[in-house]
Write a structure and sequence with these properties.
16% of the residues lie in helices and 28% in strands. It is an alpha+beta fold. The structure holds zinc ion.
């Protein structure tokens, strides 16, 4: 499984593009998404086209993950960012953090995954629409102490190490 069977990809609008939506209710605590893709080194990343670079995310200081096939991108790549996400990241799996109702959009907080080691990343303005929206999302958001407090050990391992290192300084 890459996406839970009760989820479906839908077009939202020009500014948000595609998103993943709940078509039948999902209980809190279910695995809703497992990331797929292949790992590229930083050198390989910089050989990609800008469009392809937009479809990657960092998984280590010098590594990114990209879709297995840029021409047939699997659905889990279309999950949008939210500053108030309804998933948590636990040991490489995305888990629903509440009961999810039909029609709800599946989201995660990109701050758990993204840092700026390879290139600056930002979504500005953020279009998540949640009442706790940070206004923009950037690859430096892991430095925000409220987010470190909120997400604790949910950050990707390499981001976790950056946080721990920053606290030791
Ligand atoms: Zn937001």
């Amino acid at each position: 499984m890459a996406l839970h069977k009760n989820l479906i990809k839908k077009w939202i609008n020009e500014s948000k593009g595609w998103g993943i939506f709940v078509k039948e209710p999902i209980k809190k605590g279910e695995i809703v998404m497992i990331d797929s893709g292949r790992v590229l080194t930083a050198q390989e990343y910089f050989l990609l086209s800008p469009e392809q670079q937009n479809l990657t995310y960092q998984i280590d200081l010098d590594k990114v993950i990209v879709p297995n096939d840029f021409n047939h991108i699997s659905d889990e790549w279309f999950v949008n960012h939210s500053c108030t996400p309804n998933t948590i990241l636990s040991q490489g799996k995305w888990i629903s953090s509440k009961d999810l109702n039909e029609g709800e959009e599946l989201t995660h907080d990109y701050a758990l995954v993204w840092a700026n080691d390879l290139e600056p990343f930002e979504i500005n303005p953020c279009l998540c629409g949640s009442k706790d929206c940070r206004g923009k999302m950037t690859g430096d958001d892991w430095k925000i102490s409220e987010l470190q407090e909120k997400y604790k050990n949910q950050f990707m391992p390499y981001v976790m190490e950056k946080i721990e290192k920053a606290h030791r300084l």
